[in-house]
User: What shape does this take?
Amino acid sequence: MDFICLEADLLRQQRELIRSRIQVEPPLNWQMTKTENWLTIDTPTNGTLSPSASIDKNISINSNCLTLTQGTYTDTITFTNTTNGNGNTTRNVILGINYNLWITVRGTDNRVYQREMTTGAFLLSWRSLAGYSNKTPASAIFINRNYIIVKSDINNDIWYNYVLPNPERTLATWTRLDGATPDKPAAAVYNNRLYVVVRGTDNKIYIRYMTTAGSWSAWSTVPGGYTNVPPAIADFNGYLYLIVKDVTDNKIWWNKMNTAGTWGSWQLMDGMSPSTAAMTEFNGQLYIVVRGSDNRLYYRSMNTSELFTSWGALAGWTDDSPVICSFINNLCLVVKGLGSSDIWINAMYTTGAWGTWVKLDGASPTTASLAAPKID
Assistant: This one.
């Protein structure tokens, strides 16, 4: 289960180092305490400090926060001088769990905009992310941040940024990645890493990842892969799946990578699409949605044995790639309107039935990107 935490005061991101420097004569006995089981103080939580000594303590949020429902939670860390009580103090911890659906688009002015849908299907207002692109942004939730990766609006440079899920939705700084792509990137979290896949200027497929420490690997090529549209990736059943359109026609090919970084062999999927496929895990299966050569929407799923259902047609049309995301037991689908910049949303329920199309306010000349916490 991936999650987004809002941490204030003591925990500004996922963890913060607390240094307690105490200089005393004679030695001082100390302890640190907390109440909630989602908060961890590294051991030891008590001891004795000799004169002029100091101790560093790591405070972190542990996996017990994965059992919490959406909302705000608090705790207090107490520092106690058990020798004489001098200098006793406390620090407040505020933890917010946010399961919103993050919708990111390229505006008609090439600015990058974002909004959220709550679990109650309430839409928050659009906000600008102070960036520009002439392609659809990529979006993924990783280490409690919403990462956005874009192609530049003036060249093939690749840039990334992230939004913190604090009440202010603080935007970090845009940072350029080495490498180039003429199309929108693809992003997915797999094996506790943020993977980015792009189509290169030579139509080869390139992949790299960011670690939880924020360092990037080098680019590597996906063996034997070529495409003339953006690729799509998704985490499913212990593999990173990749789908691309053929570089010479509308055939659909797929491959997968294991946790060791080893790729399998390319497999041809029946069906055709002139655009990038959409792919995500939902209801225990890997769902795939494509724009057909007739601009209609088609979908299918694959189980853990890599057996595919037949294609089904969905009542909807688009002249760009669709995008899908699992969100609160629904498979959310967003498309750009056929012949317009309208943004439309629909959802499949766990029963397999689709809902009705709803038009969102706002406009985009290309498809959107979606990201939501993964809840297992």
